[in-house]
Amino acid sequence: MITTVAKSQQELVTARTPGHGMHGALFGRQDIFDSDVDIFFTRHWILVGVTADIPEPGDVSTIDIGKSSIILVRDDDEQVQAFRNVCRHRGARLKQAGKSTVGMLVCPYHQWTYDLDGSLKHAAHMGKDFDPTCKSLTRVHTKVVGTHVFVCLGDQPPEDIAYLEQTMAPRLAPYNLTYSKIAYEAEIIEDGNWKLVIENNRECYHCSATHPELTASFLPEDFGFCAEGLSEESLQALDEYEERNAAAKRSWERDGFICDAVEHLDTDAVTQFRTQRLVIAGNGESQTLDTRVACTRLFGDLTRRDLGDVHLWTHNSWTHVMSDHAVISYIIPLAPDKTLVRTKWLVHADAIEGVDYDIEKLTEVWKATNQQDANLVAITHSGTQDPGYSPGPFSAFTESYVDQFSRWYAARLAAQGV
C-alpha cells in the first residue's frame, strides 16, 4: 500500500513558486485553519469593531473569534474596555455574541456580577476569606485608533501597533470619527478561506469586469496597469491621470490633509497595514454611484467635500473614509471555507436619515461590491480545492500586493516557529 504523508504548513508555504499563488491545501485544511486562527487572529492585532458600536456607558458588543470570545464595553468614564467573555468563577459565557446595554455584567450561571471596569462586585456564598479583587475579568489588549477598535488576544501584543497609530491618528483627526454613528451594518458569510478574502481585497485586476458600482468612483489607472504597448491616446490618458492626482495632492496638502502612501507590509512588519489618500473619479466627492456625497452633514467640522478616499488595509480589514461617510469592513474566520465579513457605514453622529442622507445611496456601492466579492471568493476557493488546481502566476502590474501578502504570511509563520 502506498501512503502519502501530508506536508506541513511550513513545507507548503516554502514550496510556493515566487510570484505565484499558494498551494490549495493552505486554503482547505482544518489543521492549517486552526493554526491561522491561533497565529493571525490571536497573536496579532485585529480589528473587531468601531467606537460607535458602544456609544454610551453600559453599551456592550460581544465578538466571537475561534474558540475565544471578547466583550467590548463602554465604561462609566466613557472609555472603551475589552475583556475575555469568561466568568472568573467556572467559565460560563457572560454574554452571547451581539450588542446589548447593561448596568453591570452579570454571569447567567451563578450571578457573579462585574462592574463595567471588569472588577468583581458581587459573588454570593463565597465566605469571608474570599478576595474579589483577585477575580476581575481578564483584560484584553486594546488600542483605539480614530474609531477603529483593535484588540490582541495574545500575551505579548506586537509593539508596532504604535506605528499604525502614529500614522493614522493625524490622517483621521480632521474627520473626528469618534463622533460618528453607524447608519447601517451588514454581514456576509463568504464561502472561502480568509486568506482568499484578503487576497481578493488586495487587487483590482478583477474590478473593471465585476464591480460596475465601485468603479464609478475609482480612477481606472488606480487598478494597476501594464504600460507596454499602450496607444498614444492611452498614454495621454495616463499623463492626465498623473496630473489630476498631482493637482489633488497639492490642493489637499495646502489645506493640511495628509496624502502620501505609507506601506508597512513587508516581511519585517508584524502589524501589517497600508494607507493612502486616493482621488475619487467623476465629481470627486464620495464612493457613490454619482460620485457626490451621500450625506450632506460632513464629518467633524469639514467644509470640503472633495477630500478623496483615505483608505486603510490591515490583514483582517479594509477602510474607506470620505468627507461624508466611512465604510469599515473586517473579517473573522469561521472555518477553512467560511469567512464572516462584517461592514459598517458611519456618518456624522448628528446626521439625520431622510434629511441628511438616504440609506440606499449611502450603501448601494459597497453592498453590491461585497456581494460580488463574495461570489468571486466562493468560486476561487472551490477551484483551489480541485485536484486539477495548480497555482498560477500573479500579474506584476495588478497583483503585486497579493504576492506581497503571500510573502508576509510565510514570514509570520516562520517567526512563530511554524
Automatic annotation (TrEMBL):
Keywords: 2Fe-2S, Dioxygenase, Iron, Iron-sulfur, Metal-binding, Oxidoreductase. InterPro entries: Rieske_2Fe-2S, Rieske_2Fe-2S_sf, Ring_hydroxy_dOase_asu_C_dom, Rng_hydr_dOase-A. Its cofactor is Fe cation. Residues 47-151 form the Rieske domain. It comes from the Bacteria. GO terms for molecular function: dioxygenase activity. Pfam families: Rieske, Ring_hydroxyl_A. This is Aromatic ring-hydroxylating dioxygenase subunit alpha. The lineage of its organism: Bacteria, Pseudomonadati, Pseudomonadota, Gammaproteobacteria, Pseudomonadales.
